[in-house]
Design a protein that fits this description.
Structural class of chain A: alpha/beta
Radius of gyration of chain A: 32 Å
Number of helices of chain A: 24
CATH superfamily of the largest domain in chain A: ATP-grasp fold, B domain
Strand order of the largest sheet of chain A: 3-4-2-1-5-6-7
Largest sheet of chain A: 7 strands, mixed
Shape of chain A: flat
Strand content of chain A: 15-25%
CATH class of the largest domain in chain A: Alpha Beta
Distance between the termini of chain A: 16 Å
Oligomer: homodimer
Amino acid sequence: MPIHNLDTLFMPGSVALIGASDREHSVGAVTLRNLRGGGFSGQLFLVNPQHETIDGRVAYHDIMSLPVAPELAVIAVRPDQVVGAVRDLGLRGTKAAVVITAGFSELGARGSELQREMLAAAVPHGLRIVGPNCIGVIVPGIGLNASFAQVMPPKGDIAFLSQSGAMVTSVLDWVQPRGIGFSHIVSLGDMADVDFGDLLEYLEADAATRAIALYVEGITNAGKFMAAARNAARRKPLLVLKVGRQTEGAKAAHSHTGALAGSDVVYDAAFRRAGMLRVETMPELFDGIETLALTSPVNGDRLAILTNGGGPGVIATDALVSAGGKLAELTPATLAAFDALLPPTWSHGNPVDIMGDAPAEHFAGALEALLRDERTDAVLVLNCPTALADPAQAARAVIETVASSTREGGTKNVFTTWLGEFLATPSRKLFAGARIATYETPEDAVQGFMHRVHYHRNQILLAEEAPPVACAGCDAALVRAVVERALAAGRQWLDPAEVARVLGAYGIPLLQSRFVADPAGAANAAGELGGGVALKIESPDITHKSDVGGVALNLAGPDRVRNEAVAMLERVRNALPQARIDGFVVQQMAPRSAALELIVGLSIDRVFGPVVLFGHGGTAVEFIADTTVELPPLNSALARAQMARTNVWRLLQGYRNSPPADLDAIADVLIRVGTLAADQPHISELDINPLLADARGVLAIDARIAVTTEARTAMALAPLPPD
Amino acid sequence: MPIHNLDTLFMPGSVALIGASDREHSVGAVTLRNLRGGGFSGQLFLVNPQHETIDGRVAYHDIMSLPVAPELAVIAVRPDQVVGAVRDLGLRGTKAAVVITAGFSELGARGSELQREMLAAAVPHGLRIVGPNCIGVIVPGIGLNASFAQVMPPKGDIAFLSQSGAMVTSVLDWVQPRGIGFSHIVSLGDMADVDFGDLLEYLEADAATRAIALYVEGITNAGKFMAAARNAARRKPLLVLKVGRQTEGAKAAHSHTGALAGSDVVYDAAFRRAGMLRVETMPELFDGIETLALTSPVNGDRLAILTNGGGPGVIATDALVSAGGKLAELTPATLAAFDALLPPTWSHGNPVDIMGDAPAEHFAGALEALLRDERTDAVLVLNCPTALADPAQAARAVIETVASSTREGGTKNVFTTWLGEFLATPSRKLFAGARIATYETPEDAVQGFMHRVHYHRNQILLAEEAPPVACAGCDAALVRAVVERALAAGRQWLDPAEVARVLGAYGIPLLQSRFVADPAGAANAAGELGGGVALKIESPDITHKSDVGGVALNLAGPDRVRNEAVAMLERVRNALPQARIDGFVVQQMAPRSAALELIVGLSIDRVFGPVVLFGHGGTAVEFIADTTVELPPLNSALARAQMARTNVWRLLQGYRNSPPADLDAIADVLIRVGTLAADQPHISELDINPLLADARGVLAIDARIAVTTEARTAMALAPLPPD
């Protein structure tokens, strides 16, 4: 199903350039040159109130004078003229506009107001807007270059979506000598209307697009984004460079686009959940685009490395193992083939070092054997320049071997690195011409292979994703009532009894405690709870209870508790005569001294909404800094995957004499907290710390819950059926 | 002081090529072409028994027939002919030889034997050998190209030392279009004789060498290496790429060079201790060489970023902050200058975004202002290609601005990145011509800046290094006696009483314990120790004491201990009638329940000798995996720096209600263990785990010590005086 009017944006029959110009180097002139030079076969109209003709073509005085309504408009006028232009286009019935003009939300309050007016003028007419503050849209397949970019890429099957126009021009300049083509290039600018979610939804269904690369500074409309990204990632690889990782970086991104930047770890969780490949650097994005363009999906993580130099083979191995890939183990047949082909000094293993003086025939023969080896999923060929053999001959031998393997139905990817630059450049051009992925260094090539491996792993994970476990016996209505009462009383934090009821309603085991008014009540509560108990004074005025003798531990039996309560009341009244005393809390003693202390939490991210936190807990939780977040809803597989990303996970497996903790019980708490997040839009924060965990199960010792009148919507992340 | 005969290697008056050839693409022919084509002005002799002339020059039948003894010989004959050639050269009085021939230690036992014979033939004559199994030596300053590399670099001030010949040819090919020159290039091969330590010692004193880059697979003779590296790093930056980080990588490196690979974390510690800059990847090494060649030292970590595109500015900021650098805060004067120069849409902060249509004058003016800003230590200029302005004009403006700043005495480094490739390449060539450092991406440029920052920080650290604290009151003789006795008894592990004496002799506080023979002795010991004690059965046959009732905790008073000892003896005899029972251990109870559990250890690395380990301890130490190593001897600054590299360091600072631990006491233990390592060559392993630490000090609870008859020498790492 095509997204509302985006088909008009990407396949217009006619285009009008509002603000066409012939002033050299002006945006209006460069855009006109691009529109005329791209090969677009539809009608092109120019609008400019000052000129009768521009560059030899008729210029219309205004939009209303155009002979027909253009299907797509490109707007490059002054900021104060944009709203009028959008209104006129809407009236004429135009359904898509690219607003190149800058000076909107990125400039603060006045600009934001202008942006609102622009949208208000567009929405009633169903006019979709890309931008403002962008460099435009390019669709090479129909020769549409509605941008002021410096170069037009050839047609290809990659879409590139970028919040930064500078990244668009940089990528275009980088791919130009490599002959890499694109299906769509969209500079999104301030994303007043058309955003990543819209475009991903459109491109998911677009048969001409085989892979999508994104440059992201901040996501708006996270629900739409996640739904579209998850669907698209099932069908094609999504590569994303998200900047603003560091606080100072986030500030710069904020000042740049006016978008609210969410926390980077939540972005990480969201991208992972959507099955996207996150890259960390610009070179990785560049190389990733090459990988997507020139390789096909892999089915495993076993790489064979073929090299004429030992050192670079070691470097590639380091990079492969660091990144979680595997060195392929060669079959006896392959080893025998190498013994027959190569001099006795060859490395007799993987990396396959065929020595510095290896002639082109050895590259060809060795590559052929590796492509036939069923224990190898892909091959990396490395060439070090040498005076003893011609690197370009070796490149040609590799190209011929790959071509003949492809003719015979082979589908294994071959990644190449011809090291150096002077002698290497001609070989790189040969590979580009043969559409074989080539990289400047062994590390870059291994990263390319690992991008394919990670995409393959993502697919497996998404397919295995079971439906969320229902929250057996959860009582959402009870919790809503508790929360409403607290909000009605103007409170931000639930009191201990309320916290206990919330956790109880969602089946999260909590150390039992009773709030009682007096020593007699404390004695009764001790009888009910049984075993040793702790007794604590309850007062809104006392923060450090033990400092005033307001805490007693390990009291056995009702009588002992009653006597201690009487004594405690006296101690506290003597110490703090003014303090209001509400009563006592009687609490079971935590029974598990050898258990691990975990933290499970729920908080609300500004961009992505509720996130479930898990990690190593205790009083030093911020210092241990071993936590990870995941977007709810969770199921058992997702909860386990989340737990496995922490260091405490290794301790939970059992160590020395400690048996493994009850991992199912921990996962169950995470799932239930995720359900709570979905059910209870007024709970703004929840912290269970510590959650004790050992072989017998879990037990929450302490918890706090904050509520807010401002409800937020939880994101729908339904499990995806296999594609 | 020049290293023994290395001046002959690098500045020979005459060279002989043993194994000269005219067979195309053979090593002998390529090396001959290189020797003739490099511009070497000394005499060149050829030796080949089969030909009268080669390539129009006289070929001598053998070394003995040469008219004079060559100062340097290059050997490219069959492996079985090498020993004879070396012997003849030695007899003639040649002092340096480069053995290109492969087939020695990298091929196993037979090759190693040949290598020993070769050395035996060389040593009596003081003949130094580079290689075998290398591509040779290049000294551009005297036109000496004694290698079979494919290209000769120009003269420059960087030395490149590489254990891999393939890395040499790759680096040469990479720098060729960049016009980067070298003072020395040495392919070390199997390092039978001349190794990194020799070369660093020589190059430290070489005025023509301003910086040194190393490619390392494994270090031999670590003591010499460390001494030379530390001295050299005081005078010039040392950049090192050490491969074999991963286990599989280490295996490949091992199979490749025959060198023993030490543990990678110890290499890390050694490089850090030597003040070297370790790089992780080949691109980082390549770019690092460019940085060293084209920039000068920096005095701070504040970077200003000048860009015509917002996105790449954010990317640079992310990279800078991740790497520990700082965004410069601009002075009001600079901000005012920008307001006067730039359109109102400029970013009004750092990164300084001068907008996509910025003309060359804006690059020039903004850069000039930043070079004048006293709060900025260096400037990164980014250019994104655009159709609105010419990138090459911007590059020329930057080059002119830098030139005029240099003329006025400015020394601030300018790093540049012209993004893309098609439009960017001409600008990159302009920068290369002007000797301004230029990188393909913002991340690479930031990394270049950070290499300079880290070198600057290393210098500060080395200068602040105080002399090691003497081990106050340590009794080395006592420990030697304990160790000797254990070794004489054929034991590998010291018994608990011996461990207590060793720690006591080095002033490391240990939980007190007494070994006693019977219940009466246990009662006496309990009286001596005072307070609560633990009682444990002592038997060589019982591993799990508590399983047979052989452990009792928290016993107060001699009587209670005597009674319990009697009962324990009976329990254990009933449970294990065959077990030999030596007596009891009576131990103080560990008094500090809130203390942190640390681990302090000593172990012997195969390459670097003793290393001191520090980290988060306890029974789960392997799972927590929070440890770090350092080479002894330590002082307070080094011990603190080591501690600060762990996560537990943050907990040691105090958190919530826990006061900071006694950091001096912990550092003191590390220093003392380091002294022990130096004093006691027969101690092969020591583990204190846990070492309890809190605000009151430290206390070792458990420790074990292994000894060995095979003594090892501790490395001398004397503090370095300021240069």
